[in-house]
Structure prediction request, 263 residues.
Amino acid sequence: MTYIQAIIIAIIEGITEFLPVSSTGHMILAQSLMKVQDPNFAKTFEIVIQLGAIMAVLLIYIKRFFVGINIYLKLAVAFLPTGIIGLLAYKAIKHYLFNPFTVSISLIIGGVVLILLDKWSERKRSEYREVEDISYAGAAKIGLIQCLSMIPGVSRAAATIFGGVFSGFDRKQAAEFSFLLAIPTMFAASGYDLLKEKDNIHHDDITILLLGAFVAFVVAIIAVKGFIAFLNKYGFKHFGYYRIVLGVLFLVYALYTGMELTA
Prediction:
C-alpha cells in the first residue's frame, strides 16, 4: 500500500464511518478500484484507522460519560447482541460476504430503507428527554438491529440509527446514540481483529499505520459534527439516494470491466 492509497482510504474511513453509508463497503470498493496489493496488511490498516476514527467520537462525546452510570448500562445492553453474534458468526460472514457484489447490493437495499426512514421520521418526536433515558428493551432492539451491519455495505450507523428511530428516538438522538454505541462496538471488533492480525504488523509499517489513524481521526471529527447539522436540515433521504447511485454505478463498472465481484 502506498502513502497516497493510505491517505485516500483513511479519508474515506473518517468520512463514512459514522454516516449511514457503510465505511467497510466504501473501503472494499476503493481498494478494488485502486488495486491495493497485500490484502493482509490492508486488513490491518483498516483496523488501525477505525480505531483512529472512534477516538474522534470519544473526544467529541467525552462529557456524556461523566453524567452517570445510566449511559454505560444502556450501551452495554445494546452492545451485547452484537458481541455474542459477532463471536459466533463474524468469521463466516467475513469469509463469504466481504466482496464488491455483496457491498453493492447492500448499498442499494440500504438506500431504499433510508429513503423510507426519512419519510417515517420526518415529524417524529422523541419519547425520551435524553439518549440515556431510553428503556433497556429499546437499547436491546437497537443492538439486535446493529447485528445486520456485520454484512458489508449495510452500515453500522444506518442500522443503529434505524433501530434508534424504531425504538423511540428522534433523528438527532438516534444519530447520537449510534455514535456512542460505536465506541464499545468498534473497540471490541477492532481490538479482536488487531490481536488476530498482530503478526502482520512490522516495524516498517508503523509510519503508514500512524498516518492513516491520524488522518481518519481528524476527518472523523469534521464528519461527525457536519452530519448532525446536515441531518437536522435535510434528513436521511440524500444518503439513501447516494447509496443507491453508488451501488448501481459500481455494479455497472464491474460488469463493464470484467471485475471479479465476489473476489
